[in-house]
Amino acid sequence: MMKSLAIIGSQWGDEGKGKITDLLSLKSDVVVRYQGGNNAGHTIIVEDKKVVLHLIPSGILHDHCASVIGHGVVFDPEAFEKEVEKVRASGITITPEKLKISGNCTVITMYNKLLDGQRESKGPVKIGTTGKGIGPAYEDKVSRKGIKLKDLLNYDILLEKLSANLMEKECLFKNLYDCQYPSAKEEAQRLFELGKIVEPFITDTFSFLDQCKKEDKKILFEGAQGILLDIDYGSYPFVTSSSTSFGGIYTGAGMPGGSVDEVLGITKAYTTRVGEGPFPTELFSELGESIQKKGNEFGATTGRKRRCGWLDLPLLKYAVKSSNLTSIALTKLDVLCDIEGLKICTKYKYEGREIDCAYPGIDLSKVEPILEDVTTFSDDFKSELSPAINTYIKRIEDALEIPVGILAYGPERSEIKFLKEFL
What we know:
There is one protein chain. The chain is 31% helix and 20% strand. The protein has helices spanning 17-25, 77-89, 110-122, 134-142, 155-176, 184-198, 205-214, 247-252, 286-294, 313-323, 387-400, and strands spanning 4-9, 30-33, 42-46, 49-53, 66-69, 74-75, 99-102, 106-107, 202-203, 219-222, 262-268, 271-273, 307-309, 311-312, 327-331, 343-350, 353-355, 368-373, 404-408, 416-418. Strand 3 (42-46) and strand 4 form a beta hairpin. Helix 2 packs parallel to helix 6 and helix 3 (110-122) packs across helix 4 (134-142). The N and C termini lie close together (6 Å). The relative contact order is 0.16.
């Protein structure tokens, strides 16, 4: 039996990772977030109660499970404080034994949030960010000006680092964006106070995971967003700022002394995208709006409408290869029930030739999707699957050359079929 499993979004995020992570964390000893920040959003329905997690791993819903926020996550301590309050108000216990946060996480400062908002509203290119400071925080990290979570525990060090961090940004705030911003002292005081709230949870998570591995604990790695939003593998520049693919586990949390046994790609039965950027199979018709409404396609973090389109096999094939996916979970199959004129994209026409797999740097705005008609299905998922839906699943498996291991057909924990064993 496998000891480690990664759950990764195989499209542009919003594939329904939350519920599946929640169910599989029931079998796990540890659940780990390794990239992104509170720009992610997992909506989990537990006994008619909706719990939305943005930063805290889904394992927090289970008392037997330790939840880890690895060093690859960018951490907003103010958002964390509010999320802890909401989750505790839902009756869920959060303790330092249940939740461990790397002191090496890069902190999202008020300056990062201000920059994000100003760029999106006044800059020449709209990326469609959540405005939560994620990208600018990763910029600070890469330019070696980042504030680390452990810095929040020492006011003098924090003030010194924030003063250096502000030097260049101050020119942008004053001269380019003409906006108000807190002084280094004000921001240091705000973060220092928030640091007192986070301090009990700060842990050497790398060594903690190393020990878990030695003890043969079952570890679940919980990805945020999706492979097509990866900073290297995604549809650049309309991407997030972290490694959302399989490789992000090794850089953002660590897997000491081993590798991940299974990589499960969460895949919506159709395709959606939030924000800007090319989308080859996007539906601009009433059918697209119908799928959007039926699938309740609104972002858990922002509430923004998700653009909807047919399932895109060339992009999925690329996701499988770029993230070493070993199986997929096919979600929201119920949304496609009774859809007349159902189609699937099998290839692209691109630069005078046909291709069946995308690749890094492909210009998705210039591809022409080749669509294949699919027989409509009308399953209730309570009995045997119909031949039509089995054909749809088989078509996907044949193209991707990996099995569909899970079927999901609604928001509830119970609305899921496991076709293979995990953990």
